[in-house]
């Protein structure tokens, strides 16, 4: 790769130390003076010290790449607006909002701080207006790109992985990011009918026009997709130029989506007894508590729509994420019960905090040991040191990057399946759920948690490809709570990159170390030629291509699910989430560090342990993300009783 990567970790050798080997026995016998004796002792001590350092060094399996940010604005918020915080350096537990993780820069990674930037944003007015093409024209209509370049033609199925990859990816996304839109009364943009008015308010100014011959929305006489711009820091009394988006969730992988990123939410979700989270019991099973506003009226009929509550507000967006949030509520309470049984004298607070620490650690382990190798492949895992032990470095900004949350990590949207299945104990499908009917409406999860887990583990995922499934691009939402309206996730993903001023594809391609391109045809090293031809029809220059459009078109590389320009941003982000987090599960020497016995027990836990602890599933494969046919390969699915959770080290 190119020279923008630095810090190749070099194994320590004797040549690194001029001190080793500088002494000789013959000199000692000739001179016999005290000073020399002392220097020999000193040398021996130094050699012993160096040996100590060598053997205590964390195992570095390979060199570690790092993406160098060239942005100039990463410190702006911290210098101008970050609150003054006093930290307790001896605290064993993370704060609720993630502050005080980095003791020199206590706001780094905290909720309500900006996304990190690899490159400065690009706005046509330098503040907030969408980037223009090199010839001064507006960027191509995002919906038109979806309907032409990214038309869903392929139906390939992933034979290695099942559908569980999708809700897990979304679960960790909602741990690390939430960028609210400028909506008046809803977290979901589709609710804002007023954007179709003749003089729409400012939050509607980036809506996506729909052409009358749009195959889906044209027939419904829709003229726009109601895309909303994101809330910027000025809403929090911090005016920054260019416009800067603050993350509402803590940037760390700390399961803030389960516990909340602010104290008010965290307290609302607690039972304050036995360290437990508040829950609802329905039919002998625990579910997340419900928001009373989930009951909606349609005409004169009252329709019950379940609205679960958790640490992240997007819990109800689709069935997959609602499932995982409920599973994690149960997992917290399972661990808390076990700890309280083993330690009857522990207070509610101790049980809660110890459980929270365990749940976050297991989430990190599943993500790095099981999920990321599937997404990024071994080569990226090794190159970016994602398999290595954590080497906490307080100079690393641990925050989610704007290029990641509004770009690269959304690539997983292309494996969202069109339908979810519920399966009975004998693994026959008894219900098929479509996204259009279940958006913001997770009602059918009640009573079907086991059925849904069986359906997810038993169904092959969608192969990564340069398109989204048809249903997710053409959702006519059938939920009275949000009115009937349309939505196209891929168009939103393209438009979101423009909203936050992501630099064009070729710039980030360069940052990722790929050769410079001077023409569309130079893209042929990573983008198929028929797609390059289509790009020529939409963009005036190769340097105008949207980042998201470019990375979605790149061929997969090096065992990753994605091409080089997406994979490099994902890999570097996970490098920073790990090595910039003082509370990461295997960081040593901190007040909150786990003992090595505890780490061993944590490392033994997998997603299958969590599923067995929280459901009535009978059997499951050891790697829950892999597709194992239940009927033919039952032997590869051990009984749930074998997935024991051992907390004796606590
Ligand atoms: C059925 C599954 C999913 C649906 C329906 C869905 C839908 C959405 C929607 C509507 C948005 C906001 C779009 C915008 O206005 O910019 C979004 C954002 C996002 N999604 Fe998904 N998503 C799903 C699964 C996933 C998965 C599997 C990932 C994997 C990593 C993911 C990653 C993201 C990211 C990173 C964002 C931006 C988060 C933020 O900054 O707030 N999503 N998704
Ligand atoms: Ca978090």
Walk me through what this model shows.
- By secondary structure, the protein is mainly alpha-helical.
- It has 20 helices and 14 strands.
- Strand 13 and strand 14 form a beta hairpin.
- Helix 9 packs antiparallel against helix 18.
- It binds protoporphyrin IX containing FE (HEM) and calcium ion (CA).
- Calcium ion (CA) binds next to helix 5.
What attributes characterize this protein structure?
two-stranded antiparallel sheet; binds calcium ion; mainly alpha; binds protoporphyrin IX containing FE; single chain; 650 residues; disordered N terminus; 20 helices
How would you summarize this macromolecular structure in one to three sentences?
InterPro entries: Haem_peroxidase_animal (IPR019791), Haem_peroxidase_sf (IPR010255), Haem_peroxidase_sf_animal (IPR037120). The protein is mainly alpha-helical and 650 residues long. The protein contains 20 helices and 14 strands.
């Amino acid at each position: 790769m190119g020279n923008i990567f630095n810090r190749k970790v070099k194994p320590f050798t004797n040549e690194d130390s001029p001190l080793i080997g500088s002494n000789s026995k013959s000199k000692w016998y000739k001179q016999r003076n005290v000073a020399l004796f002392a220097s020999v002792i000193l040398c021996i001590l130094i050699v012993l010290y160096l040996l100590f350092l060598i053997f205590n060094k964390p195992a570095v399996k390979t060199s570690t790449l790092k993406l160098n940010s060239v942005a100039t604005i990463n410190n702006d918020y911290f210098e101008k607006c970050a609150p003054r915080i006093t930290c307790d350096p001896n605290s064993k537990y993370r704060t609720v909002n993630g502050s005080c993780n980095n003791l020199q820069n206590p706001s780094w990674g905290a909720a309500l701080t900006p996304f990190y930037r690899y490159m400065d944003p690009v706005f046509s007015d330098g503040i907030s207006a969408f980037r223009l093409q090199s010839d001064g024209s507006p960027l191509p209509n995002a919906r038109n790109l979806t309907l032409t370049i990214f038309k869903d033609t392929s139906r390939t199925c992933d034979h290695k992985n099942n559908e569980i990859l999708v809700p897990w990816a979304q679960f960790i996304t909602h741990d690390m990011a939430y960028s609210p839109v400028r909506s008046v009364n809803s977290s979901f943009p589709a609710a804002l009918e007023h954007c179709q008015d003749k003089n729409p308010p400012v939050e509607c100014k980036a809506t996506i026009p729909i052409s009358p011959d749009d195959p889906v929305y044209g027939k419904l006489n829709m003229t726009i997709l109601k895309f909303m711009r994101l809330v910027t820091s000025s809403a929090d009394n911090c005016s920054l130029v260019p416009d800067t988006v603050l993350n509402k969730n803590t940037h760390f992988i700390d399961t803030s989506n389960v516990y909340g990123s602010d104290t008010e939410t965290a307290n609302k979700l607690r039972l304050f007894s036995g360290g437990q989270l508040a829950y609802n019991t329905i039919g002998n099973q625990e579910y997340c508590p419900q928001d009373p506003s989930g009951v909606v009226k349609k005409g004169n009929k009252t329709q019950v729509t379940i609205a679960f509550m958790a640490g992240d507000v997007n819990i109800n967006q689709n069935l997959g994420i609602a499932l995982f949030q409920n599973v994690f509520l149960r997992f917290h309470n399972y661990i808390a019960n076990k700890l309280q049984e083993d330690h009857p004298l522990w207070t509610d607070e101790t049980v809660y905090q110890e459980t929270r620490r365990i749940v976050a650690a297991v989430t990190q382990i599943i993500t790095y040991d099981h999920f990321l190798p599937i997404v990024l492949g071994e080569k990226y895992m090794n190159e970016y040191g994602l398999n290595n032990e954590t080497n906490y470095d307080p100079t690393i900004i641990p925050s989610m990057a704007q290029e990641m949350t509004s770009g690269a990590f959304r690539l997983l949207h292309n494996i969202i399946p069109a339908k979810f299945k519920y399966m009975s104990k004998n693994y026959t499908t008894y219900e098929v759920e479509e996204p259009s009917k279940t958006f913001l409406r997770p009602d059918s999860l009640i009573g079907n948690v086991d059925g849904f887990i069986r359906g997810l583990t038993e169904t092959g995922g969608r192969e990564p490809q340069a398109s989204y499934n048809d249903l997710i691009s053409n959702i006519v939402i059938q939920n009275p709570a949000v009115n009937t309206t349309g939505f196209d996730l891929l168009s939103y993903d393209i438009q979101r990159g423009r909203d936050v001023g992501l630099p064009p594809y070729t710039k980030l391609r360069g940052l990722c170390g790929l050769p410079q391109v001077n023409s569309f045809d130079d893209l042929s090293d990573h983008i198929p030629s028929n797609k390059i031809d289509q790009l020529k029809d939409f963009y005036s220059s190769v340097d105008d291509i949207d980042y998201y459009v470019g990375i979605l078109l790149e061929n997969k590389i090096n065992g990753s699910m994605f091409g080089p320009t997406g994979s490099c941003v994902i890999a570097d982000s996970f490098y920073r989430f790990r090595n910039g987090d003082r509370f990461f599960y295997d960081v040593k020497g901190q007040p909150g560090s786990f003992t090595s016995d505890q780490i061993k027990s944590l490392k033994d836990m997998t997603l299958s342990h969590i599923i067995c602890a929280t459901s009535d599933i009978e059997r499951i494969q050891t790697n829950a993300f892999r597709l194992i046919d239940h009927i033919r390969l039952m032997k590869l699915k051990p009984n749930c009783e074998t997935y024991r959770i051992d907390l004796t080290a606590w």
